[in-house]
Design goal:
single chain, alpha+beta, about 20% strand, elongated, WH-like_DNA-bd_sf, transferase
């Protein structure tokens, strides 16, 4: 049986095969130059560093130091690299490109830019935009810091996105039908229509500018009672503390607005959310079997006292 992990591995390997093929990384020479790919990368480091040592380049490229040393020696024999002892440490050798080495790098750089330019020009604007966005994402995944979760207020378009994303996710994960999307749309339309900043609030969670969750604070029918609504977290953002931060922010805002109690409705199927509510201090006050969204579910009401 193929697992999700197996599928992820297959996807990344397929991308690697396509990428190396399209950019000609398996060719004996890189971009038609007299250099292999590893030689071209070492030449690039030599051109863009000030007096590096072979060990510096090996660490930067994650190459075997012996391989880098052999390449530097070949470059030296071809008149591309000059080697001198470090004034600070006589056993350390500092590397730099000769004039001939500089010309070789310039030729290689021009050829590479032209090759990448031709590749981009062969794509439609839509394909090019997707490729460049994906390249940035891949770079962030490998080299970037852990992405920061940011909460912000609502912007035009957010209400539709919240309804759409929740409907898609709950359909995918639990098989819910379009009734949930209709319910979420009604809740959001009512929220927008009756919004009062003295009684209501909402937050969108973002990571790297992308919406990964939401939560809404809505005044209830009873005086002093507010409702927590439409909490959700995107699957790939789970485990980053997004849900907990949304819930604690909503609770703090409800207290600041003077509410004495915060209530929410959910269904028992959403076990991760229920655990989150319980950790935040909510207590389940009622359960009712019901048929919703094409399934037999159990409605739950949870409550949190906000005042001593």
């Amino acid at each position: 049986m193929t697992t999700r992990h197996d599928q992820d591995i297959a996807t990344l390997r397929a991308f690697n095969r396509l990428y190396t093929s399209r950019l000609g990384l398996l060719d004996a020479a890189y971009d038609g130059s007299p250099f292999t790919l590893s030689e071209a990368r070492i030449l690039y480091e030599l051109a863009n560093r000030t007096d590096p040592m072979a060990a510096d380049i090996a660490r930067a490229l994650r190459l075997d130091p012996a391989q880098v040393s052999r390449t530097v020696k070949r470059f030296q024999e071809r008149g591309l690299v000059a080697v001198r002892e470090s004034p600070a440490h006589g056993r350390h050798q500092l590397l730099s490109l000769t004039e001939e080495g500089g010309r070789a790098f310039t030729t290689l750089e021009t050829s590479t830019r032209m090759a990448v330019g031709r590749l981009l020009e062969s794509l439609s604007p839509f394909q090019r935009s997707r490729l460049l966005a994906a390249a940035v994402s891949i770079g962030d995944a490998f080299e970037g810091a852990e992405p920061e979760v940011r909460l912000r207020g609502l912007r035009p378009g957010d209400l539709g996105l919240v309804a759409a994303r929740q409907a898609i996710l709950y359909s995918s994960e639990y098989g819910w039908n379009g009734d949930y999307e209709a319910l979420a749309a009604r809740i959001l339309a009512d929220f927008h229509q009756a919004f009062d900043p003295r009684k209501d609030d909402a937050w969108i969670a973002e990571v790297s500018g992308r919406m990964v969750g939401s939560i809404f604070l809505v005044r209830g029918e009873e005086p002093g009672v507010a409702k927590l609504r439409l909490l959700y977290v995107e699957p790939d953002a789970r485990g980053m503390g997004v849900g907990q931060r949304l819930v604690t922010t909503c609770i703090a805002r409800a207290r600041a607005l003077g509410y004495g109690r915060l209530e929410l409705w959910t269904v028992s199927t959403l076990t991760a959310a229920c655990r989150l509510y319980q950790r935040a201090g909510f207590v389940m006050t009622g359960e009712t079997p019901n048929h919703r969204f094409g399934h037999d579910l159990v409605d739950q009401i949870w409550s949190l006292r906000l005042t001593p």
